[in-house]
Design brief:
Length: about 1050
């Protein structure tokens, strides 16, 4: 993933994990939910994330787990003369021991968690409430990682990215705090990361070198006296991209309306109009005041030696004397009603031109829920309320809004409690202006009806079970568990509350269950008090304006022109010199002496052989079953795969709709609501996902990309004792899902269309990547037609057909199901511990017996796909979207079928991403992200940028990569660094369900253990010549590659005015 998109995904995972731990989560079955934009953390840029195997849950009964926890509790508390022990306790829910220390001299607080988890985590967090919207916390978060007192390279962060085994390396800026976490499974590497981060935050180069602020924050750029003055800067351009997103603008407006009197009323990320007001003195002063150990919360987690943690910290902290920092986050007082200017806000957002633009209003209602901190029980109860109202497609408020047909998609995210005070937001997007008031009225009507009638018992049971399952499972996916612990603890600790309280849930859960058993109207009382009777609320209406983007561009140009007009000749010359000075510094290479200060692993620290995943393949009742014995604490993860290659090409774009129908339209015996509640009450959730992969040739050469695996998986999980329920549900949705539910299908298509249109503006790089691969392989054509720009065109036609020719749509869906439910073509994938796999066998047998035989003569349609699927020319395309930044891609095929790309190519491609592209596209060019993707299986390569102020300049940088590599004389140290980073990617830790699913994927595409080991050996044997050779490959793309970009009409017009006729970019209106 690219820097920002990866971290947006990361933010979802972090916030979900954090909220689960805080016992006040907004759970969504089958989908993650984004909080309103202003409260999401901003981040440094790039990271790699890894999961880890589960630690012992309190509910687990395995004797060895109980013994381990008991032994851990019996150990004497670790002490150090520099620290006072403030608290020492077991967190029984997760079988870990937590000790809170306070450093005597500096006043720093430390939470040290000892856990049987090799994926070790460290983090240091500062409370950083801003007073304005200059973005100083966000810019500082970027800047402190650009060199420090001990580590002298320009960007130690990037050097660590290049050559570490890190499983997480990044930083987050929240509205009131800034977090710097790292993680690694390698002890030496872990402490290397910690040293760099501690020195970075406490002694950064940025406070003594104004060039860092200019690069990461903002600066004037001018190369010639007659040139127009422009703003540049990484964060400046990042936030221009954020402010191009209607959803982000809405979130910002909602937060600022609810918090008019405290720090949440300004934008910690930075408002592009205000960022240029930040001075170096203000920037340095913010660090001097708030980046002090007395204002820090320091965290350790994992199986590393606890005494070593304290000894290292004491070295850094003993330089400081305790102070009383002025960093308190003031509480926003709840008001009987907000003033008119906050109670109802109308704000414009940039929209594309078109006849439908006027009907894309957004309306959102927002409430501030509490003033005083909530108890653990109330937090948990509020989480259940949130789940009951919005947690699934069949939840009470979610369904009412969706069924109303007043808009295209539900927005707001419901409960948001990652800040000091909780909020609740809900609304609709895609609303005609005359229907805006109806949305408000409907929300109130639904809430009033809930209070009057109460929730159905089955709904309460489903929501309670869903939340309890996730609390006990604590599956953080690709995120390190320890990082989720840290962010969970921080949700209270940052406000000087007990950091362990958010990590516990048993007592709160028992208390809530007891109140429900006693018949107390817990949930309806909350809705009445916190929503219906709560006057501290704001209604935000977002109004589309197709001319706003042009107005904003003109206003910025006018502002800069006025600034330049007021400059003297000496001022202008000074800006020119500053521009040259910054560019020279950015282009300069670190000296060998500076690079030598960065702690590094050596090749001897790497394992020569990779770990293989357990995989047992068998045939039962004609169905292929894969089993994976993984530690799962009694939970079974089951995946049931349907072979999509049985479908004709014309059916493939319908698969996404078909997969949603399985779970969101009801079954022959249950409506949508009843089915959803049954899933929630009996399992840990059901969802669908797609696996598409190119089959690996036996000779391990470049594939044509035409031999594919394409499967739709129904994925579920449950405790072993509920396996019957899990597989009964799977049987019912696969065989009897209501494919005749026209109303629900139309609703889902509107949601999908709205989501895709929104993501084109915020994630254009992803769609550029798909479009670039489409001309070269069948896999690329498939991805574009089922998930790219082409798919948006299809969705619009399909929505029209669902509304005006429903019988044909239903008939196609029914035909697809009949084809896909062919028993012998199915695959079942099971991941669990060995005992659970044995215990669930009767459930498997019963499920297999119930499956229809289907058409046993059915054969793959892959061959016909080649002729019937749309093909795409490799042409230069510019998709016009309302945005102030660009997403620029260029790609081609650099290896042809029959050739072979060795493991060394992955080292080179990774080095190019973290080196040349980072330096030229991000650092010098000012884009938020610049990166590349190479497929050693199909030989395709693409360059991509994210939130990029440039277009032609970025393409020139792409074309310059070939010469850079062909002439590169890489040092032995840099080569080793690149190899180490690549091996780290190969060895990312995984959770139990991830292990099983990845083992199955490898089996499906025909990837062998021998091929993986050969690849690893080639990675380890990478030479300087491999870099030069790859550069020659990339040189062919200078003329043969094509450009796909997303940006404004002006950006493409300006670019075309400088391009030759053969290189013109075709402008395509897509929204």
């Amino acid at each position: 993933l690219p820097p920002a998109a990866e971290m947006r995904a990361a933010s979802r995972a972090v916030l979900m994990s954090m909220l689960v731990l805080a016992s006040s989560t907004s759970l969504r079955l089958g989908a993650g939910v984004l909080r309103h934009g202003a409260s999401r953390p901003f981040n440094r840029g790039m990271s790699r994330r890894g999961g880890s195997s589960p630690v012992a849950l309190a509910s687990a009964t395995a004797p060895q787990e109980c013994t381990a926890a008991e032994a851990l509790a019996a150990e004497p508390v670790v002490t150090h003369p520099g620290f006072d022990v403030m608290k020492d306790d077991m967190v029984d829910e997760y079988g870990v021991r937590a000790t809170i220390y306070k450093h005597k001299k500096s006043g720093a607080e430390v939470l040290s968690v000892i856990a049987p988890d090799e994926n070790k985590v460290f983090g240091i967090t500062f409370r950083t409430p801003p007073k304005d919207s200059t973005g100083v916390p966000h810019i500082l978060e970027h800047s402190v990682l650009c060199g420090s007192r001990k580590f002298l390279s320009k960007e130690p962060f990037v050097e660590l990215l290049k050559g570490s085994l890190q499983t997480f390396l990044n930083a987050f800026t929240y509205p009131d705090r800034t977090c710097y976490p790292v993680a690694s499974c390698n002890l030496k590497d872990f402490y290397n990361l910690i040293n760099v981060y501690l020195d970075a935050v406490l002694h950064p180069r940025a406070t003594n070198d104004d060039l860092v602020l200019q690069q990461e924050g903002w600066h004037y750029e001018l190369e010639k006296p007659d040139d127009p003055l422009v703003f540049k800067g990484v964060v400046y351009n990042e936030m221009k991209g954020v402010y191009s997103s209607p959803d982000a603008l809405l979130g910002r407006a909602a937060q600022q309306a609810l918090f008019p009197d405290n720090t949440y009323g300004v934008d910690s990320g930075g408002d592009p109009l205000v960022i240029p007001d930040l001075t170096f003195e203000g920037f340095k002063g913010f660090h001097d005041e708030l980046y002090h150990p007395s204002n820090a919360k320091i965290y350790f987690y994992g199986d590393d030696p606890a005494p070593q943690r304290l000894a290292l910290l004491d070295e850094y902290l003993s330089e400081f004397d305790a102070i009383n920092p002025d960093s308190e986050v003031k509480t926003q007082s709840k008001k009987a009603s907000l003033p008119a200017e906050s109670a109802r806000i109308t704000q414009k957002f940039p929209a594309a031109e078109g006849e439908d633009a006027a009907n894309k209003h957004m309306i959102q209602m927002n409430w501030l829920l509490n003033e005083a901190p909530m108890s653990s029980k109330d937090k948990l109860a509020l989480a259940v309320v949130d789940h009951l109202l919005l947690g699934t497609s069949a939840a009470t408020l979610q369904k009412a809004l969706t069924d109303s047909s007043l808009g295209s998609a539900v927005i707001g995210g419901g409960l948001s409690d990652e800040l000091k005070q909780a909020t609740f937001s809900v609304g609709l997007k895609g609303v005609p202006p005359e229907k805006v008031a109806d949305v408000e009225a409907l929300v109130v009507k639904v809430l009033e009806k809930v209070v009057k009638d109460g929730f159905d018992d089955s709904a309460v049971e489903a929501s309670m079970n869903s939340i309890e399952f996730q609390l006990r499972e604590f599956n953080t996916g690709s995120f390190p568990r320890g990082l989720s612990f840290m962010l969970g603890a921080m949700s209270g600790w940052i406000y000087d509350r007990d950091p362990l309280e958010p990590l516990r849930f048993e007592e709160a859960l028992a208390e809530l269950k007891a109140e429900l058993a006693a018949g107390k109207p817990v949930f309806t009382d909350m809705i009445q008090a916190l929503l219906l009777d709560n006057g501290h609320k704001s209604v935000i209406e977002m109004v589309p304006d197709s001319g706003l983007e042009q107005v904003q561009v003109a206003e910025e140009e006018e502002r800069l022109a006025e600034i330049k007009a007021q400059m003297s000749d000496d001022d202008i010359e000074r800006v020119i010199q500053d521009t040259a000075r910054l560019k020279a510094a950015q282009a300069a290479h670190d000296s060998p002496e500076a690079l030598a200060t960065i702690p590094a692993l050596t090749l001897d620290d790497l394992a020569k052989e990779g770990l293989e995943l357990p995989n047992e393949v068998g045939l039962e009742q004609g169905v292929t079953i894969l089993r994976h014995d993984v530690p799962s604490n009694g939970i079974v993860y089951a995946d049931i795969g349907l072979d999509l290659t049985l479908l004709p090409a014309e059916d493939l774009p319908f698969v996404s709709l078909f997969s949603r129908c399985l779970l969101q339209t009801g079954t022959a015996t249950e409506d949508q609501v009843t089915l959803s509640r049954r899933i929630g009450a009996r399992t840990g959730g059901l969802g669908t996902s797609m696996v598409t992969g190119v089959k690996v040739p036996e000779d391990d050469t470049i594939a044509t990309g035409d031999e594919l695996v394409h499967r739709l998986f129904l994925r579920g999980k449950a405790v072993g004792g509920k396996a019957d329920d899990l597989f009964d549900l799977a049987r019912d949705v696969l065989m009897t899902a209501r494919l005749d539910n026209q109303k629900r299908v139309i609703e889902m298509l509107k949601e999908s269309k709205a989501g895709l249109e929104s993501s084109l503006v915020s994630s254009g790089h992803s769609y550029a990547s798909q479009r670039l691969s489409a001309p070269h392989t069948l896999a690329g054509r498939l991805a574009e037609t089922t998930g790219g720009v082409e798919y948006l065109k299809f969705l619009r036609d399909l929505l029209d057909a669902a509304e005006n020719d429903w019988p044909s749509v239903q008939a196609r869906l029914e035909r697809m199901r009949s084809t896909l439910l062919t028993k012998s073509k199915m695959v079942i994938n099971l991941s669990a511990d060995g005992q659970t796999l044995q215990d669930i066998q009767p459930s498997i047998d019963r499920f297999l017996s119930a499956l229809p035989e289907g058409d046993e003569s059915a054969v793959s349609s892959l061959e016909s796909w080649k002729a019937d699927m749309p093909s795409f020319a490799a042409s230069n395309e510019g998709f016009v979207v309302p945005t102030q930044v660009n997403y620029v891609g260029k790609g081609g095929r650099v290896y042809q079928p029959g050739e072979r790309a060795s493991g060394a190519t992955s080292v080179v491609a990774r080095s190019l991403r973290t080196g040349y592209l980072w330096d030229n596209v991000r650092v010098i060019g000012g884009a938020y992200g610049g990166f590349c993707r190479f497929s050693p299986l199909t030989g395709t390569f693409s360059y991509l940028s994210y939130r990029d102020p440039n277009l032609l300049g970025t393409i020139e940088n792409y074309d310059g990569a070939a010469e850079f590599l062909t002439t590169l004389d890489i040092t032995d140290e840099a080569l080793a660094q690149a190899i180490i980073g690549t091996v780290g990617d190969l060895d990312s830790p995984m959770g139990p369900d991830q292990k099983g699913f990845e083992a199955m994927r490898r089996w499906l595409v025909g990837e062998t253990a021998e091929q993986r080991q050969q690849w690893r050996a080639e990675v380890l044997a990478t030479t300087k010549e491999d870099f030069n050779e790859f550069g020659k490959r990339l040189a062919t793309m200078i003329d043969d590659g094509n450009v796909v970009a997303f940006g404004s009409k002006k950006a493409f017009s300006d670019a075309n005015s400088e391009l030759d006729a053969k290189d013109q970019i075709e402008m395509i209106e897509i929204l």
